[in-house]
Fold this sequence. Notes:
The chain is mostly helical and 144 residues long. The chain has one domain. 78% of the residues lie in helices and 0% in strands. It has helices at 6-13, 17-27, 32-64, 69-95, 99-108, 111-133. Helix 1 packs antiparallel against helix 6 (111-133) and helix 4 (69-95) packs across helix 6.
Amino acid sequence: MPPISRTPIAFAVAPSIAPIVLSLYFGSNGPGSLMLFILLFGAAFAYGAALLAGVPLYLLLRQRGWDRLGTIVPCGALLGLGCWMFFLFAFPLFTGASPKNFYEVFVNLGVFDFLILPLLLGAASGLAFWLIARPDRNRVAVAA
């Protein structure tokens, strides 16, 4: 039996980090239904982003030989920040929120929630992805 590729497992596990942490962080003060909503909506968003952006980014990095830990983690952080920004802009538009409510969301989010948290969650997802996939172990040695 051939060995199982670790990359699909990494793509299945790593995106779940952000929705779990976000549901605990933002939903812990509200009702359980809020936590569940954040978890489910966040998971759908995270896995969609992994499929639409993460897979092509990983394939590009892998093709160029830039799939080391020092590249995957910062790319994960930037991808997490980009997804968070897209979510913050897209969610109010899809829900029909007024521009006033949209502005209040940005004012009420501090620097940590607006910038640092998504960077940390993206980096954590990138680290988890790299630790599971371990693309450095799949390299073929080239004879000199």
